[in-house]
Amino acid sequence: MHMRPEAKPAWDRLTFALQEVEPDCLDDERYIADLLQNGEKRLLASICSACPILTECMEYAITDQPKAGWWPGVQLKQLDRKEAA
Ligand code: SF4
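That is the input. Now the predicted structure with iron/sulfur cluster docked in place:
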C-alpha cells in the first residue's frame, strides 16, 4: 500500500485503535464501492458518525487522502472540502 510519509503517524494510531475495536465497515463492500446511491451514502455516513474510532479514521484519511473507497463515510473530495472549511 502506497502511503504518504506524513500519514504514517496517523496510520499507526488507526491501526493501534483497530486492535481494540472492530468497526462496522469491516467486510462491508459498500466502503470500497466507486459509486453509491444517495441512500447508501447517508447510511455509511451514519455508521461512521457512531464509530468509536472515527477520529483516528478521519485523521488518517485527511492526511493520506486515499484515492479509493469511503473513509469516515465520505469520499476524498468531500474530505478535501471539510479540511478546507
Ligand atoms: S469511521 Fe472509519 S473505521 Fe469507523 S466505520 Fe467509518 S470507515 Fe470504518
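The first helix runs from residue 8 to 17.
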